[in-house]
Amino acid sequence: MTGRDDDIPALELVRATKRYRVSQGLFRPAAELTALKELSLVLRKGETLGLVGESGCGKSTAVNAMLGLLPLDGGSVRLGGRDIAAMGLAERVRRVQVVFQDPYSSLNPARRVRDLVAQPLRLHRRGTDPGPEVAEMLERVGFPARLAEAYPAELSGGQRQRVAIARALVMRPEVLICDEPTSALDVSVQAQVINLLLELRRELGLSMVFVSHNLAVVEHLADRVAVMYLGEKVEEAPVDALFRAPRHPYSRALLGATLPPDPAAGLPALGLGATAADPLAAGPGCAFAPRCPLAAEACRAAPVPLAAQGAEHLARCLRAEAA
Ligand code: ADP
Ligand code: MG
Hints:
Blueprint: H1 3-7, E1 11-22, E2 31-43, E3 48-52, H2 59-66, E4 74-79, E5 82-83, H3 89-95, E6 96-99, H4 103-106, H5 113-124, H6 131-140, H7 157-169, E7 175-179, H8 187-204, E8 207-212, H9 215-221, E9 224-229, E10 232-238, H10 239-244, H11 249-258, H12 297-301, E11 307-310, E12 313-315
Parallel strand pairs: 3-8, 3-9, 6-7, 7-8
Antiparallel strand pairs: 1-2, 1-4, 4-5, 9-10, 10-12, 11-12
The structure holds adenosine-5'-diphosphate (ADP) and magnesium ion.
């Protein structure tokens, strides 16, 4: 591989915008909800990008865009430097695969494990016997061979997620997207699945997007982290910088919510209170201003641009210094 090839990102969102029309009840006109607002992300070859934010901030919408499953209202998705909209299904499937939160709803309950893992090979690479590859992949993900003829309902949550991972990787994709892959699992099993993903990433040379509302999980896996709020990227940094010196008040609040309270860590308490993000209440300024304890007049007046905070560190906050 040449140096030039290495410079091409594995995957890119370029100012991706997605709007949904949502009903507000019988007597009010439908409103427009912006689920992605000019979201730009770069996944470099071989890295893991963490994508974090509260429920409803647009993480899964971003994932569906990355998979080429979502018609965008603006912007584009590029896989290996090429627009995903111009790719056929077979190429997309070969390049990018996904593991979802709940393997029980993503795995057909009427099919046996061996079949579930063989299916992508049968659909996209007809003619060869998928048996050996399926067996090898099941072994790689630590799935017991004696259960290869079982149905999903007969498996534990962790075993089901291993099957979902094997199914995603059997096509040997370049990019693996994990959308909250451990959120439905018991805590003890979560760690096993995370360690498995770390191992597979190394062995298979995967580029990975890891989506989670749990920053502690992302810290363990990610090289860089992007923090989303109501469809926008509000902060992006190498994982160490984000955890050591988060600049956006929202990132600080997320960290406070997942780290054990430790005054010695120097993170100020910055509770978000009881209010929730309201995607329909956006003013002209910073979307986080209504919940932000540091918000000033200027924050509410006009859109806030992403600004450099340090090496590879961006934050969308006028009060980043004060934060
Ligand atoms: P997350 O994965 O971070 O929880 P989502 O991407 O699922 O967030 O959702 C982002 C926003 O878009 C939410 O407000 C959600 O209600 C809305 N949304 C997602 N899908 C649809 C849809 N098909 N129609 C209308 N609104 C949607
Ligand atoms: Mg989601």
